[in-house]
Amino acid sequence: IRLAEIFRAALLQDKAIAAMQAACELTPEFNDHLKLAQWLREYELDGRHPKAVDALKQLDIAESLAESDDERRLVLEERIRSLMAARQLDQAIHDLTLRLQKTEGAGDSAGAADQSMKVASEWAKLAAYFEAAKRLPEASNAAQKATTVAPESAAAWTAAARLYEQSGRYADAV
Questions:
Q1: Long-range contacts: 44-52, Cβ < 8 Å, 24+?
Q2: pLDDT value of position 161
Q3: Under a CB-based contact definition with an 8 Å cutoff, are residues 19 and 7 in contact?
Q4: Which of 3, 10, 23, 137 has the most CB atoms less than 10 A away?
Q5: Distances (CA, A) of 114 to 15, 31, 119, 137, 173
Q6: pLDDT of residue 18
Q7: Is the Cβ–Cβ distance between 75 and 66 less than 8 Å?
Q8: Who's near 161: CB < 8 A, 6+ residues apart?
Q9: What global pTM score does this model have?
Q10: Mind listing the pLDDT tens digit for each residue in 100-136?
């Protein structure tokens, strides 16, 4: 990892990324995969971001290693930046919306608290995607859906309140 950072400081991006990828394969830790995803997103070639898609793969790994809500939020924020760099945010919104619509049609699985928290997390992710796309009314609605699916989720309520405030729904934010 230190070698990758030295290459990066010397502006040797290809070598830095290769060294960091090798390090991540040897010792898969959350911060290293998150850092690699950031480097891949920032890698530019002719003004394009060809490695932003590779960054998304690293974020999948980082997400599986995340141990706290804060770490999951960091992954989500970097995922949004990578989706935007790859010009895939609208497609991600579309795909996640379809996936969530299918879960609604599937019905409620009798008291599965873990499942409701997972679904609420996906609704919160969709709210963040809409927010990044500057579609605040849809973001607020997705956040509200997250609180409906898992009313015990403090993270969902916090996101909903922030989005309500941003979209001028002050009474709902309280």
A1: 49/85, 49/86, 51/17, 52/82, 52/83, 52/85, 52/86, 52/88
A2: 85
A3: yes
A4: 23
A5: 42, 26, 9, 28, 26
A6: 87
A7: yes
A8: 172, 173, 174
A9: 0.78
A10: 988 775 555 545 667 777 888 889 899 999 999 999 8
